Amino acid sequence: MNCIFCDILAGRLPSSQVYRDKLCTALMDIQPVNPGHMIIVPNSHAAFLSELDEDTGAQMFCIAQRLARALRRSDVKCEGVNFFLADGKAAMQEIFHVHLHVFPRFDGDGFGLTFGPTYFHKPARNELDEIAQKIRSALD
Q1: What is the dihedral of CA 97, 102, 107, 111, to 10 degrees?
Q2: Which CATH superfamily, name and number, covers 4-113?
Q3: I need a surface site. Which of 72, 77, 124, 130 has the fewest CB within 10 A?
Q4: pTM of the entire structure?
């Protein structure tokens, strides 16, 4: 297996660590959206969320909250914070080791989302209920 995050976590590649515990590590992103952009990775390899244990997933979000608070308290320009996690190629995942982005935002920073044409069409309640049922049926 060739995983850049596993190599970083093992010390084979350099990183600028912000935080580390027994489950997760937070690093500075080398291609930041804005200065202060960090990623949180589980210390054990998991390519997709479905492979990640719930305790580690929960810890990733606890760390993300702490980092968001630290961004706001720091001298890093930060008027807001985004979390972003891509799960799968169609979701724009590029490195197949789960990672949660935490990045500071400010007015005029140039980052944004593009919505498809169906975004502005609100589905009927029965359509939402039908999809909800399908998801409920698939829960563990």
Answers
A1: 0
A2: HIT-like (3.30.428.10)
A3: 124
A4: 0.93
